Amino acid sequence: xxxxxxALVTGGGAGIGEATCMRLARDGLAVAVxxxxxxxxxxxxxxxxxxxxxxxxxxxxxxxxxxxxxxIAQVRATLGPIMVLVNNAGVEEFTPFPDIDDAEWDRVMxxxxxxxxxxxxxxxxxxxxxxxxxxxxxxxxGAQIGAxxxxxxxxxxxxxxxxTRSLAVELGPRGITVNEISPGFILTPxxxxxxxxxxxxxxxxxxxxxxxxxxxxxxxxxxxxxxxFASEDAGYITAQTLGVNGGCCP
Length: 250
Known about the structure:
The chain is an alpha/beta fold and 250 residues long. The chain has a single domain (6-188, 218-241), classed as NAD(P)-binding Rossmann-like Domain (Rossmann fold), CATH 3.40.50. It contains 9 helices and 7 strands; from the N terminus they run βαβαβαβαβααβαααβ. The chain has helices spanning 15-26, 38-50, 65-78, 102-130, 141-145, 151-171, 189-196, 204-209, 219-229; strands at residues 6-10, 30-35, 55-59, 82-87, 133-138, 176-183, 241-244. It has a 7-stranded parallel sheet, with helices on both faces. Helix 1 packs parallel to helix 2 (38-50) and helix 4 runs parallel beside helix 6. The radius of gyration is 17 Å and the shape is globular.
């Protein structure tokens, strides 16, 4: 019998991260739900366990290297070596370019880019030892087409794409695939805050009306793409970006 694989999902307490935790658990993986908000990650882990799965909440800020190291050690001690990593945690800021200060730039880069580096570097030894692994990163549509008032956010996500492809080249011979999804307008708590704050250049309804599939996407749809990249079926796929975006950017 194949041992249960362990997945770590960062930003697992809400939105795409929550949906991914639930989907991977449904697919038979044990899931470590990592995030900064104890109530959120606890709720997700409890829901998985209530449904008959295996999960644990792990409190950490991906931008803090010491917290990341402690979190990974906790997962290994409780569940075992990590074979699937989903780098979902991130922050979003809407600021005109002339008004972005160093502190805001550093905060976005620390969460969205450095966090991916730190968590991945901490987890990869497990995959190297096993000769098998799946890393799935989240980039963003803005990194592909640009986004007004989000230069720092788009730049951080563009860095994730470069990291994804470089890691895929380096780790592919060792049995580890590295891919990413690029969500379009997915209805998450983060996007809802942007809607409520009227932060988009035009109403979001006008944005999604131009898509071939003219609606918002849902976290479960992004999670399905992530679950595929994390599966055995995706063993000959690496260094790829899959847009989950209603066809807005073929």
